[in-house]
Amino acid sequence: xxxxxxxxxxxxxxxxxxxxxxxxxxxxxxxxxxxxxxxxxxxxxxxxxxxxxxxxxxxxxxxxxxxxxxxxxxxxxxxxxxxxxxxxxxxxxxxxxxxxxxxxxxxxxxxxxxxxxxxxxxxxxxxxxxxxxxxxxxxxxxxxxxxxxxxxxxxxxxxxxxxxxxxxxxxxxxxxxxxxxxxxxxxxxxxxxxxxxxxxxxxxxxxxxxxxxxxxxxxxxxxxxxxxxxxxxxxxxx
Length: 238
Prior knowledge:
The protein has 7 helices and 9 strands. It is of the alpha/beta class. It is globular. The protein starts with 9 loop residues before the first strand and ends in an 11-residue tail after the last helix. The mean pLDDT is 95.
């Protein structure tokens, strides 16, 4: 196993102004040196257009880990909307991370990459993608990119099949059961990212990303075992 220096890893986070990025950035480990980026800069975030390969290379130089959250997160989005960011942007991030010798690349996939399985089927992290929409297909593309990078470079990759992220606990009486069972809370999302960055494995791994729900849309055993992920929230807990 490759030893990881956890003393002060430099981590670049793309899409830091998105829903997940905003919710987790303050919950990430205090010993990390985190640089959040977004399409446009503000007083907190640096500018990074993931559609620009050279810009990605500049942003990732000297970085220990890249956490790639930037994407069009709309399951009903058209090909024209998804192509620049979810397809080309994902390639640019993966290629730039490898070019810069980044130790760990964490790619935000989605349980939508498995949304084509029959309802009620619990997916496992080693299941092959089976998207039920074009958005999910772009996330399957991100997973394939991660497998390619891990197989051909020194950069190891974790693809996170993120479930139903919501800052507040969903109401189990009004929210669809499929989404409730896939809930991922902010603090568990931050824990998932921490585990994905700090885990000492090498190679490629697909991790299911949801909280410690009593009934789960996806199995968590492999994710907890491989990454040391320790979720705490349960959508059904009182």
